[in-house]
User: Fold this.
Amino acid sequence: MADHTHSTPPAGRVIRSQITGIGAYLPRSLVSNDELAQRVDTSDAWIRERTGIRQRYFAEPDESCAFMATEAARIALADAGIAGDAVDAIILATATPDQAFPATAVRVQAALGAKGFAFDLSAACSGFIYALTTADALIRAGQARNVLVIGSEVYSRIMNWEDRGTCVLFGDGAGAVLLQAGDGDGSHADRGILSAHMHAQGDLGDILYVDGAVGRPDRPGHLVMHGREVFRHAVAKLSETVQQTLSHCGLTVADIDWLVPHQANMRIIDGVGKRLGIPAARVVVTVDQHANTSAASVPLALHAAYSDGRIKRGQLVLMEALGGGLTWGSALVRL
Assistant:
């Protein structure tokens, strides 16, 4: 059993949750728009014009939610330079778990040889932001020191392939970060999570949902989305939560180095960027490569820009996402 009794920082210092490792995993099967058009009544031009998506990855039968999450976590741990048995908590954001229970997170825990506690979190496409915010609170409360935060999804298994307006939008994958307790002076110059906020509006739950689950076996279990309504709320709510997170630290959009948005589609990404006044050159975009991977999209985008050298240690990164619920949120971190 992990020891959750941790020392507090020296007087005048504060605990910060620092991202010390970043990892990602994409399935082996890459599916282009042209290949998808052989299965669905659509075309490459139709998909690109409306979404910006060029391709996505679909999980093979042996690539489960837990498998992908574990692979992404291994890369994050290697990046941080620590072993699996040093991890004392795992929070896995997913809307497509392998089983109703146990939580997919405990399967990852077993595979990594990790300690402590592990649980899944369901907030659809906002899941990674929700999980990151929850992990930050646990670290600051002294409940854990090394927390794996993972987003892992296999949306290809809940698609209605007769709904061409929706099934072309999604892909599979996993992304992970390792959060470790550090200390700072409480200023926005600290390394780590500086501010994070979560929101939900349940009366909008019927514009983006999965029609059925274990408790409703009479339903088909397919994803349903009313795209126009989602777009209408997404741009406004995401812009508001970004401003809220920055204001909490006394910062403005001009202070951030990178915006890492949820990769839903280019229209939403562009809409948020324009409303906030963030130049496109400072917005990380991977939706063309990965499509919408729900809770995995933000960490996958973070990993892509970190791996290719765009995002560097010490820079200010703002992450945001909106998903079914509706749920949404944002987190500001100095990497």
